[in-house]
Design brief:
Elements (H helix, E strand, L loop, with lengths): L1 H17 L10 H21 L2 H24 L3 H41 L14 H38 L5
């Protein structure tokens, strides 16, 4: 009987460690719900993109949501708790906006590359077949293919460098 009396209390303590309830009547509950919606959006973006940076951010989010849920009841009376909650929400919203923008840019670059590949039509040599040695034509074709691959790689590198500068500029860092 003593074990039965102690079991509900133990379950309640264990559950309280893993669950935080955010009541809609709290003044800053709406901020938390926006934060929760942004957390879900970032998770979906991370799953779709497969980028390491987004997956890492999504892995850290449960702790952020947990902390934010604990700040909601305190935010009405405590300025520091309110500032932290609003800061969490703004930071996560900015991160989601940046992730969406990076995804759009990646899609635009990939689309441009696909369009370039479709637009490239094999061109027949302007000179008659027997005028140039076949080996020379094959060497020229291989070099042009390597040049094309180098240009695609340069686009990818320049696209990544542009995204890094954009993120640095948004976060207030300067490139020196």
């Amino acid at each position: 009987m003593a074990a039965a009396a102690g079991l509900p209390a133990a379950v309640q303590r264990c559950t309280r460690r893993r669950v935080r309830v955010v009541e809609t009547s709290k003044a800053y509950a709406a901020v938390f719900y926006r934060l929760l919606a942004d957390e879900q959006r970032l998770r979906m973006l991370a799953e779709r993109s497969g980028r390491y940076e987004l997956a890492r951010a999504a892995a850290v989010l449960p702790r952020l949501v947990w902390d934010a849920a604990g700040l909601v009841p305190l935010a009405a009376d405590n300025v520091e708790a309110r500032d932290l909650l609003l800061g969490y929400a703004q930071s996560l919203a900015l991160l989601v906006d940046q992730a969406v923008e990076v995804g759009r840019r990646e899609e635009a670059v990939e689309s441009a590359i696909r369009d370039d590949r479709v637009a490239v039509v094999p061109v027949r040599p302007a000179l008659p077949e027997g005028l140039l040695p076949r080996q020379l034509l094959d060497d020229a074709r291989l070099e042009l293919e390597e040049l094309g691959e180098g240009l695609l790689h340069a686009r990818e590198v320049l696209g990544g460098a542009h995204d890094d500068r954009t993120q640095s500029a948004r976060s207030g860092e300067s490139d020196e």
